[in-house]
Specification:
The protein is an alpha+beta fold. The chain contains 5 helices and 8 strands, in the order αβαβαββαβαβββ. A hairpin with a 3-residue loop joins strand 3 and strand 4. Helix 3 crosses helix 4. The chain is globular.
């Protein structure tokens, strides 16, 4: 509950009812990457047990493309349609090639969000893909005003997840907590899926977000699309 309050206060100043409640994401499910992230999380937890509540479960790992405020079932349907329509654009960008997403090193935003970085080279193509998806949402007149510039990052620790820590004076996460991994290679995942996820619906049994729709893209997506 704390977290919702925390987010609410930031947003309510502008549009009380427009807080993003959906997001479009690329799921990261590669075991090597997730294992490495768990290693870092364990290291941080060992050094600073208070940060346990700020760690994000690896089952939820994803790259966010856009966030959206979908206020009605109608808008959710439109968003599903927008995602489905983006498939052709995305595949045109890929041109049948496999897009590898290489994760290397750790970065941070304001020492409050800690994430695994993605290689610059792979980011370029992914940025074009993000733009294509965004265009489809804009064409449907959906509210994605909460979206920031696309900068692919795999968040695994977030101070805002544990607002109580802030009250106890935890304002920054010291890079000493993870310096052993600051320049580590985490692994490479093949880009094969884009999801439309709900922020506030109950998560799936796997621990991943509730998905309204998933599209499989590129040659990595040959297996049947997952049943929701």
């Amino acid at each position: 509950e704390d977290q919702k309050e925390d987010l609410g206060q930031e947003v309510s100043k502008k549009h009380p009812r427009e807080t993003p409640n959906y997001f479009v994401a690329i799921p990261i499910t590669d075991d090597q990457i997730l294992d490495r992230i768990e290693d870092v999380q364990e290291l941080i937890f060992t050094k600073e047990p208070d940060l346990l509540r700020a760690l994000l479960p690896v089952q939820t790992m994803h790259l966010t493309i856009i966030v959206a405020h979908l206020g009605t079932d109608e808008e959710v349907k439109k968003a599903v349609l927008a995602l489905k329509q983006s498939k052709a654009k995305v595949e045109a960008i890929l041109q049948g090639k496999v897009l590898n997403m290489t994760f290397h090193g750790i970065g941070q935003f304001n020492n409050q969000v800690i994430y695994v970085k993605m290689s610059e080279e792979d980011q370029k193509v992914l940025s074009r893909i993000a733009e294509a998806v965004e265009e489809c949402f804009i064409e449907m007149n959906l509210n994605i005003s909460g979206s920031k510039d696309f900068k692919p990052h795999l968040t695994f620790l977030k101070l805002s997840k544990a607002p109580r820590l802030k009250r106890r004076g935890f304002r920054k996460i010291c890079s000493d907590l993870y310096k052993e991994y600051e320049d580590s290679y985490f692994g490479t995942a093949v880009f094969s899926q884009i999801d439309l996820c709900a922020m506030r619906k109950k998560k799936q049994e796997s621990g991943y977000y509730y998905c309204e729709c998933s599209i499989n893209v590129g040659s990595g997506g040959t297996e049947e699309s997952k049943e929701q």
